[in-house]
Specification:
CATH class: Alpha Beta
Number of strands: 12
Strand order of the largest sheet: 3-2-1-11-12-9
Bound molecules: fe (ii) ion
Largest sheet: 6 strands, mixed
Strand content: 15-25%
Radius of gyration: 17 Å
Shape: globular
Structural class: alpha/beta
Helix content: 25-40%
Number of helices: 8
Order of helices and strands: EHEHEHHHEEHEEEEEEEHH
CATH superfamily: Metallo-dependent phosphatases
CATH topology: Purple Acid Phosphatase, chain A, domain 2
Length: 254
């Protein structure tokens, strides 16, 4: 099966449009969205409407921002000031049909097929970040049936690879950054935790939206970086009266 994997759109319609235009030309069996459709950005309705209109099979989980926008008591206290302000603004402007679509998203993890799972933060906790080796091990142990787990939330394109050699287990980290296209071959003899990066708010000092294409049959994973009009997304945030820093970081990439 071939999956288009994408995450963390964060109400950035300019970035989502660029990503969908690119991915629609790829052969695929399903779209896989790892959460955070809204929050931070200024086009929440446009983004959710676009996601609702996706043709074909769509597998999706909610993100922490999606949850908090619908119910501030479900974690807004953990947000910084800018995120909190944007979440409150989003909850006011979000249309009922878009609210319903977000409310129907499961918290995850979900199975794309046997052995391949997807979640927002970590499989054991949608709010947990996977940054370190220990975070990665906890997540791999939480879902032992999976050989590949896709995650989002950190907005950093990255891969942890667990390899067993006799009694020794080795965990390797790969920063999935480089050029417009990065190709990797995954092996079923190993286990992986993979973040293909963020569409709407990259944080790895590269402003370009990122997404992945995974072929579970061959094990081939391709991570793409795309050029889009980040200035337009920034302007939309400023025009909406949201904190300028939320627009500025789209242009900076962190
Ligand atoms: Fe996010």
């Amino acid at each position: 099966m071939r999956y288009v994997i994408f995450s963390d759109v964060h109400a950035n319609i300019e970035a989502l449009n660029a990503m969908l235009a690119h991915a629609s030309r790829k052969r695929k069996d399903a779209w896989v969205f790892l959460g955070d459709a809204v929050g931070y950005g200024a086009a929440p309705n446009q983004v959710v409407e676009r996601l609702r209109r996706l043709r074909g099979r769509v597998l999706a989980v909610r993100g922490n921002h999606d949850r908090v926008v619908l119910d501030p008591s479900a974690g807004i206290d953990f947000f910084n000031d800018h995120a909190r302000l944007a979440a409150r603004w989003t909850s006011v402007v979000l249309q009922p049909a878009n609210r319903r679509w977000l409310a129907a998203l499961p918290s995850g993890p979900i199975w794309l097929e046997e052995g391949v799972a997807a979640c927002h933060g970590a499989p054991q906790d949608e709010d947990a970040y996977i940054f370190t080796d220990v975070d990665a091990l906890e997540s791999l142990f939480a879902l032992p049936e999976a050989w590949v787990i896709f995650f989002g939330h950190s907005h950093v394109p990255s891969m942890f690879e667990l390899r067993q050699e006799g009694r020794e287990a080795h965990l390797a980290f790969t920063f999935l950054r480089g050029g417009e296209r990065l190709e990797l071959m995954l092996s079923r003899q190993r286990r992986y935790l993979i973040n293909v990066g963020a569409v709407g708010q990259p944080r790895d000092r590269d402003w370009r939206p990122s997404y992945g294409l995974f072929d579970s049959g061959s094990g081939k994973l391709t991570v793409y970086r795309l050029v889009y009009d980040a200035q337009a997304a920034r302007k939309r945030i400023i025009d909406a009266g949201l904190p300028a820093i939320l627009g500025d970081r789209l242009v900076r990439g962190f």
